[in-house]
Design a protein that fits this description.
Porin; 14-stranded antiparallel beta barrel; two-stranded antiparallel ribbon; 6 helices; disordered N terminus
């Protein structure tokens, strides 16, 4: 039997209704290849080089390389293409990617020839992605997942889902919110109540059963950004050892709309003249179209620290190392979910039902998260006066992510899930530059990031716990960048251009597979591929 981790927290207990789950925090912890055009055109392989405005977000030891002050701005135009199945969605976005200033203070000292300080704005991540797709002949229904998980959670009974004069099931009980939303739904008939999940004897019934077939449709529309503001200090010791310390403040704003719909033939639905004491279920010549629609707005402010060194043992060799603390975020979620159902029998419309979470109002709540810590090791070689090659390795400890309440107390259940689902990811970056003449340079690079999830997640060996009202979860398998660029220098002025091609392979899961004593029940999932192209321009001056 496959290893199983029971998803007791499908939609969370009241303490956690406002928090994100492990996979949401994984998404909030990602970074992208962003920064100056020179940095991007070499795939970000700058950990042992320094001397670029982007080093404040990577290896702040690179600030010590500066001998002159630097002021620059970077703009980019992105063309995003996302494909899920046979459906493709395209977006075009313009951004100001990086604005930075580094001030060089020359000292009359042989030991410490200069001390530098820097200020920068850098876009760490763009969340913008929109995709739609469908899955034919689904093996089960999300309604079965919600019903099964409600039944399997110890201590819950059907009575926990009822609205009563002195009882609000969203706040007064421990019932999962998705179960509350999809049960006891008001219909277009006066005083009529049905459910997407229904009690059938001594167990909870989803729409899918023997003889049921159907198709699923999904849409994911994500927007937003994570921006970092940096304050850095550094210098060098005898032109051999360069050092730097950076303090980062991150502003995060994320919005998502996620819709999941099913069209089922011969589903198990309630009759239209239902007696709630008997709850008759019918599934002959029936049809049901239903959907779950989630809206989420996440805002966060975080802080982190970075420390870095670059050592130059010879003129041709440089070695770099940097450590990033986790980013410690204060977060706020605002969200709303709505469930809708249309039921038919013998091609006759029986009823229409709908229900929104939290009695039809948005819900807001606060919590804290900490992202993974990171370590970077780098080596670069200078080839004469015309060329250089640089190699970076980055270790990202995803298994160290944490989620807690707004007082900073970690939730042990979610911490256990993080350790169960995630593993460290590894990033390799390789870049090179060739100076054609004193004014013009050519650059190129490549980077690859490995998966952050354990094999058991990818093989569907685990029941995946989610919170809130959305059972959906996503993750990346691999992310690759192919880059190139051109640089121009004339006296104090410089202009750089970069082309970045990003390839990302992701997995969308509408809900978790179920592994229990009864065996394995598959889920509805799809592969998602991004092929994004970005052109950036940096203009700056050194003085």
């Amino acid at each position: 039997m496959k290893k199983k981790v029971f998803a007791l927290l499908l939609c969370g207990l009241p303490l956690m209704i406002n928090a994100q789950d492990a996979f949401d925090v994984l998404q909030m912890s990602q970074t992208e290849l962003r920064g100056t055009s020179r940095f991007q055109s070499m795939a970000g392989a700058f950990g042992a080089l320094g001397g670029d405005l982007s080093v404040l977000t990577q290896n702040p030891g690179g600030i010590g390389v500066y001998r002159n002050s630097d002021l620059g701005v970077t703009m980019d135009l992105g063309f995003n293409s996302t494909k899920a199945g046979v459906d493709k969605m395209n977006q075009t976005k313009f951004n100001v990617n990086n604005v930075g200033y580094i001030g060089a203070i020359r000292l009359d000292s042989e030991s410490v020839p200069n001390l530098n300080f820097g200020l920068s704005y850098n876009r760490l991540q763009s969340f913008n992605r929109h995709y739609v797709g469908g899955v034919a002949n689904i093996p089960t229904s999300m309604s079965n997942f919600i019903a099964d998980e409600f039944v399997n959670v110890p201590g819950f009974v059907e009575y926990d889902l009822y609205w009563r004069d002195d009882y609000d099931p969203y706040f007064d009980g421990n019932a999962p919110w998705a179960a509350v939303t999809t049960y006891d739904m008001p219909t277009n008939n006066p005083d009529g109540y049905v459910g997407i999940i229904n009690a059938n004897g001594d167990y909870m019934q989803g729409l899918y059963g023997n003889g049921t077939t159907g198709d699923a449709y999904y849409e994911v529309d994500e927007r937003g950004h994570a921006d970092e503001y940096n304050i850095a200090f550094g210098g060098n010791y005898r032109n051999k050892l360069y050092f730097g310390l950076d303090f980062g403040i991150i502003d995060l704003d994320y919005k998502s709309y996620q819709a999941y719909e099913e069209s089922l033939r011969n589903p198990y639905i309630m009759a239209d003249d239902v007696d709630l004491l008997e709850t008759p279920i019918i599934n002959e010549n029936t049809r049901a179209d239903w959907g779950l629609y989630n809206y989420l707005h996440t805002e966060g402010t975080g802080v982190n620290f970075k420390f870095g060194l670059i050592w130059r043992p010879t003129q041709a060799l440089r070695i770099g190392a940097a450590f990033h603390t986790p980013t410690f975020y204060d977060m706020r979620d605002t969200y709303y979910v709505e469930a809708k159902l249309n039921a038919y029998q013998d091609n006759n419309h029986l009823y229409r039902a709908s229900k929104g979470s939290n009695n039809g109002f948005d819900y807001s709540g606060t919590y804290t998260i900490s992202t993974p810590w990171r370590f970077m090791g780098s080596v670069a070689g200078v080839i004469g006066t015309r060329g250089l090659v640089s190699l970076d390795y980055e270790y990202v400890a995803h298994q160290t992510m944490r989620i807690g309440d707004d007082r900073g107390n970690n939730w042990p259940d979610v911490t256990d899930n993080v350790k169960t689902y995630f593993k460290p990811s590894h990033i390799i970056r390789l870049g090179g530059e060739y100076r054609i003449n004193p004014n013009w340079s050519l650059r190129a690079g490549y980077s690859i990031k490995t998966s952050q999830v354990k094999k058991g997640v990818d093989d569907y060996d685990y029941n995946i716990a989610t919170v809130g009202t959305n059972p959906t979860y996503q993750y990346d398998n691999t992310v690759q960048h192919i880059t190139c660029g051109l640089g121009y220098r004339y006296k104090a002025f410089y202009a750089d251009m970069a082309y970045v091609h990003k390839m990302r392979e992701s997995v969308y899961n509408a809900f978790s597979p179920i592994n229990d004593e009864l065996g394995y029940e598959p889920n509805v999932s799809a592969d998602v591929k991004d092929n994004n192209n970005r052109i950036s321009l940096t203009l700056g001056v050194r003085f």
